[in-house]
Every structure is written in C-alpha cells, then in structure tokens.
Amino acid sequence: MKKLILMLCMLLLFCGYADAATNIGMDKLNWSQTLPADENITFNGGFVTKMSTDMYISPTTFGAKIDGVTDDTAALQTCIEYAFDRGYAISLPYKTIRITDELSIPSGTTMEGQRGRQCWQQGPIGNGSFIFYDGDGIALNITNPDGGYIYAVTLRDFVLCGRGTTMDNNVGTGIYCRNLSEFSFSGLNIRHFETGIYGDDLTIGHIDETELIWCDVGIDIDFGAQFWISHCNIWNNHNGIKFGTVTSSGILYSQFERCTNFIVADTRDGFDTTQYGILIKGNHFNNDPRIYSPDDGLAPYWNCRMINISNSNDPTHKLILSKWTIETNNIYMYKTDHHISINFTAGDSYAYLNLYDNLFYGLNTSVVAEIGAGTGVLSFVGNSIPSGNYSSGNCKVSGFSTIWDRTEILGGLKLNTTPTLVEGSIWYDDVEKEMKFYNGTGVRTIPSS
C-alpha cells in the first residue's frame, strides 16, 4: 500500500512539472525547428540549462546557417525579436554569422557568445562567436525608434568585425547607441569599422575587457555621463577614444598602443562642449616605432598624442574642461612632439587639469604643450621622467601662450627654457634662475612668491 501511495505521489509531481515546463533534451532538439507554442521551455543536457525568462535561444533555431557565407541577417533579427518578446537571452554559436544590414537591439537584450578573437588579414576567419558585418552602415543599432530611452542591454563575449582590411578603408559603425542607459559591453572584440562604438547620451554603464582594433575611432562618445571604460585594449586606431560632452566618467587600467591620438577631447557641432570630472587612471600608453615598421600599412605612430585637446571640430563654440585627473599612468611615447597637446581658440578654458604621479617616457618631447588663447589652471604633482634608453630626460612643460590663474610644477619636470616673444609666453631663464614671460611689449620676471 505504501509503495502504491509513493508511486501516485511521484506521478502527480511529474504531471505538475510537465505542466510547468516543456523539457527538450539537447540531443533530441533540431535547432532549425519551429519553437513549440509553449513558451516555458528548458533545454536539458547542454550549455542551456536555465528556465523561463532566463532561457537562452540560438539564431540557428530561426534558420541561421552560421557558415560565414550565407546572409543570416533576417534569422538573427528574428531571434532578437523573439527573445525580446519573451525575456529570453541570445546565445551566439561558436561559428561565424554573416550579416549585411543593421540589427535593431531593443531594451533588455542580452546577447552573448564564447569569447574569441579574429586572426585574419584577408577575410572573416577567426575563433569564438563571430559576427561579420558585410555592409557599410551600422551593424548593431541600439536606438529606440520612438525616440525614448533604451535600458539594460548586455553584449558579451563575441567578435564584431567590419569588412575593412586596412586602416584607411574601414567603413560603418560597429555598435551605435542613442539614449542608452544601464548597459554592459564586456569581452568584445571590435575591429575594422570607421567607428567601433558610438554613443550619444550614453549613461550609467561600462565597457570592459573589450578590444577596439583597426578602427578610425575606437570609441566615440558624443554625449555621456557616469560610464566607465576599464581593462580594455585600444590598439592600432587613428583615434582611440574621443569625448564630446562627457561628465563623471573615466578610463581605467587599459592598454593603449600604437594610435595617432590615444584620447581626444574636442567640441561637437552646434553647441558648447563641457567635459567635467574625467578620471584617467592606471593606464599604459605605448608608442614605440622601434617595435613596428613604418611601412606595414597599419596606424601611424609619429607625432602621436597621449591626449589631444583641440577645439577643431567646431571652433565657433567653446570647449570647457573642468576637473580632469590624470593619475598613475605609464606613458611611454618614444618619439612624439607632445604627450598632451592643448590647442584652444578664444573662449575655451579649462580648470584644474591635474597630473599626479604619472611616469613619462619620451625623447625631446613636451609633457604639455599649449598654443591658442584659452585660460586655465594646471597642476603637476609627483610626476617623474626617467633618463636612459627610453628617455632623454628633456620632457618639459612648454609653449604656453595663455592666461594662467595658477600653475603648480612639482616633481621631475623641466620647464621650457627657450624665450618666445609671443604675447603671454612663459619660460624659465637658466641664467637668472627666474620664470619669465612676454607681455607683448617686453620681457618681465614672474615673482617667485
């Protein structure tokens, strides 16, 4: 009798569970089949084990061939829309998906694969989960067509590659974001686009452990706040990261190598551009022409900049920088004119551009060189410039032709010693051991107090 009761209980439990979810063994599932009408499905026995709203679905279920040749745009877009309607996540296979048109990414999308990297010069050949965009527009478009915000988009662990093959023939945008908040881009490998990631009103999120390689611009933030770029590899781009109006954000512990401009601060069309509360900390900047051949067709490295602050995009509007902190970076610029270049026009300004405890390497370079007609407060504390094989020790603060409210020079920097008869220029007189400046009519001494 007890055995009969126990068997009845087990039968009731099984029936109840069967009503709650349809279970499909991975070995029994045809990935090209139409999904059952029951939305509460569990794939057992494989990498997909979660239930209900945490379930992962594959674009192969919707007909994607993932052979790197077939156009899988429609299949992947259908998969994205199906996942959005039901709150599922998307699992990208360990193969190449070729798309030829932009994919629309809605709120709440999670799309992830198996991390890999590209290993090609001519053609989309790589390992890991690989999206090859064979077009010249936008690959992944994270924009609300109704003009509102997009929230909670997660892209993780896959390669996104454009169809360029060299630095100067890249086209299109890898990830285009407008009005995106609470985002996470992690473990991506983005390459061969004109712009790797573009953001307009990009807030509250992070880009981490991501590679931006062989793009004209790796990351371009037109407007953003409270986002962090960390532990990334920004390599072989004309411009690594470009900022427009950006506040309360930072670049942390990333590797920058072989870019013309590692970081660019510039105005944007049609309005004054303010950059406030930017932290650049713990990064490594490397530009060594002894490692690379100047004829290999990749990014140029001569006359490069660690940071290029230039009101060049729209000189009719102001560029205003406030509270930039550049701290504990290793800056290895073997051959360059300036580590930090500031080129202002009338009305531009910056307050509290602070450099703390950075290590500067370079040959006959200027740590900071400024031309233009801006105003600002500059602070150097505890920075050092080694001598020897990697540096001549002649790095200096030079070329100032601006109105300074306060300048603090502490640590191992050598000031410019060349007199310049341009109004507002400042230099250090090695003979008289005094700071000098030219006021437009004559040379004057700056009181040591």
Compile the SSE list and pairings:
Blueprint: H1 2-20, E1 22-25, E2 41-44, E3 56-57, E4 67-71, H2 73-86, E5 89-91, E6 96-99, E7 103-104, E8 110-112, E9 130-133, E10 138-142, E11 150-151, E12 154-156, E13 159-161, E14 173-186, E15 189-191, E16 195-208, E17 211-213, E18 217-230, E19 233-235, E20 239-252, E21 255-257, E22 261-265, E23 273-281, E24 284-287, E25 305-310, E26 319-327, E27 330-333, E28 338-343, E29 349-356, E30 359-362, E31 366-371, E32 375-383, E33 396-398, E34 403-411, E35 414-415, E36 426-429, E37 434-438, E38 443-446
Parallel strand pairs: 1-2, 3-5, 4-6, 5-8, 6-9, 7-10, 8-12, 9-13, 10-14, 11-14, 12-14, 13-15, 14-16, 15-17, 16-18, 17-19, 18-20, 19-21, 20-22, 20-23, 21-24, 22-25, 23-26, 24-27, 25-28, 26-29, 27-30, 28-31, 29-32, 31-33, 32-34, 33-35
Antiparallel strand pairs: 36-37, 37-38
